[in-house]
Amino acid sequence: MEEIIIEIRDAEGGEDAKLLVKDMADIYLKWSNINNIGSKILESKEGFVSIWLKGKNIKNIFNNEVGTHCWHRVPPTEKRGRVHSSTIAVSVIDKETFRPSSIEVNPKDVERKYTCSGGKGGQNVNRRSTCVILIHKPTGIIVRSEENRTQGKNEVAAWERLRKILQEGVNKDSESSLRNSRYNPNSKPIKRRTYKVKDCIVIDHISGKKDNLTKILKGNINVLHA
Predict the structure, then answer these.
(1) pLDDT tens readout for residues 31-83
(2) Domain annotation for the chain: domains and CATH numbers
(3) Which residues is 145 bridged to in the sheet?
(4) What is the DSSP string of 6-44?
């Protein structure tokens, strides 16, 4: 099974482009329902939606969606009936590319403190220095473990907690860096598709195929793929 993240963002067209981002997300969610593919919206805000997908062969399928999608339509907010041209951008992130190996913490970067636990647990916990505090000096992260009755167990738990927090930070940074590398506003994006609403037709500029817009709006994106 493959896992990817689809990111859809507004490019040109102002308010209508922001509306089209959500419309495009709906198309991809409909496709996932039709094909019994696991899907979940990870983030949704004005002008941006990201969707997690898991299934067979979805990397190849959605590589056929990457690029700019230009829509010619009368926006729902248009009062004079004028046709607008709005563009949105679709990118794909392979989740396998931002799963770094388990992080190693240099003990020299960590300050350790031992204190008496303040919780319940009897004389051993309250009178002996069973509570362990670790301070990661490069980041300023502080973790505390006092839930166990012995200092040794608390130290193990504290180190595991610190590694987990640092690993989550690495994963987040890796994902952010990958997203920035996939979407560069200064680079010229691939012209993927044109949607002519008045003519009810969609043209894919990479595959050379075209089909009925109504069919695409129902989630049948495969008909346009190479």
Answers:
(1) 999 999 999 999 899 999 999 999 999 999 999 999 999 999 999 888 888 99
(2) 2-98+190-224 (3.30.70.1660), 107-173 (3.30.160.20)
(3) 132
(4) EEEEEEESTHHHHHHHHHHHHHHHHHHHHTT-EEEEEEE
> What gap in Å lies between CA 12 and CA 98, rounded to an integer?
29
Q: Which two tokens stand for residue 117?
A: 């636990």
**Residue 92: strand pairing partners:** 6
Q: Which two tokens stand for residue 202?
A: 């969609």
Buried (b) or exposed (e) across 44-71, using 16+ Cβ within 10 A? eeebbbbbbbebeebbebbebbbbbbbb
Retrieve residue 203's tokens: 């043209």
| pLDDT tens digits, 133-165 | 999 888 888 899 998 888 888 999 999 888 888
Closest CA to 167 of 102, 108, 106, 110: 102
Tokens 């670790």, residue?
Answer: 134
